[in-house]
Amino acid sequence: MPRFAANLTMMFNEVPFLDRFEAAAKAGFTAVEFLFPYAHPAEEIGKRLRANGLTQALFNLPPGNWDAGEKGFAALPERFADLQQSLRTALPYAQATSVKRVHLMAGMASRSDQKAVEAFYKSVAWAAEFFASHGLDVVIEPINPRNVPGYFLNDFLFAHDLINELKIPNLKLQFDIYHCQIIHGDVTMRLREMMPIIGHIQIASIPSRNEPDGEELNYPFVFAELDRLGYGGFVGCEYNPRGKTTDGLAWFKPYAGIKP
User: Fold this and answer.
1) What is the CA radius of gyration of the chain?
2) Beta bridge mates, 6
């Protein structure tokens, strides 16, 4: 049965960020993820996790100036020093939360630009080597061009081929089902093909990005398929609740309280 992680960036926004850990635990979640922890001390986040018996499933490496539209540095040749510093910035948070995987964002660039492709390969390999010594996986996530036009990594097949080409043991795919359905469709067959390299999965309804309880995909089938495929990682709930978070958790009740 899948192990669900509440995304505290998008869920439980009824309360301040540091209070969302308790809210998630009370709702039956045993794990959490979020985009960026860097506005809060690493020690405080670790304290909230421990106090609520939660496992940290994932968080993103620093993306640069998010408010200005930056979405990471990995495909930007001129920002390699920033990429290196972002890993050092994230490390204390990884240590404080005992997280086992971090998401490396590619940035805004074109895959038709060979220098951007070369920079991405270099950055991915460098990040994976950096975190390997700390026992962490690095995951890369294709993001659909409807939500983030101009994002470098917008193709699951490119990501799949890159991971298989580099053959770095702690480099994995972050398989966001919402993004995959929009980019490619045929989600179940792609899960079957790519399962050997998947390190993290995320979900939301398509096309609205709300609770995974309807619209295009039959999520109960998808969850059962993850079990059939032997997926043992986390499933991040990266969706926008339609209203109050707890009012939209009927889909989650059969899975509440499952321990990591």
Assistant:
1) 17
2) 32, 237
Tell me the two tokens of residue 187: 């989600």
Structure tokens at 3: 């192990």
- Whether 51 has a pLDDT exceeding 60, the answer reads yes
pLDDT at 203 over 60: yes
Residues annotated as part of the active site: 141, 238
Is the CB of residue 196 less than 8 Å from the CB of residue 190? no
Rounded Cα distance, 14 and 235, in Å: 22
Q: Compute the distance between CA of residue 230 and CA of residue 30 in angstroms, rounded to an integer.
A: 20
5 touches 200 (CB < 8 A): no
Structure confidence by residue, pLDDT tens digits, 140-151: 999 999 999 999
Q: Tell me what the mean pLDDT of segment 205-213 comes to.
A: 97
Which amino acid type is present at position 67? D
DSSP category for residue 108: B
Structure confidence at residue 254 (pLDDT): 86
Structure tokens belonging to residue 158? 């490119």
Task: State the sign of the Cα–Cα–Cα–Cα dihedral 213, 144, 94, 165.
Answer: positive
User: Which two tokens mark 91?
Assistant: 């490390």
Helix (H) or strand (E) holding 201: strand 198-203
pLDDT band at residue 255 using 50, 70 and 90 as cut-offs: confident
Predicted TM-score of the model (pTM): 0.96
Max intra-chain CA distance, the chain: 48
Distance in angstroms (rounded) separating the CA atoms of residues 91 and 73: 17
Q: Report the alpha-carbon distance of residue 145 to residue 155 in Å, rounded.
A: 9
Three-class SS state of 139 = strand
* 49 in Cβ contact with 32 (< 8 Å): yes
pLDDT at res. 260? 54
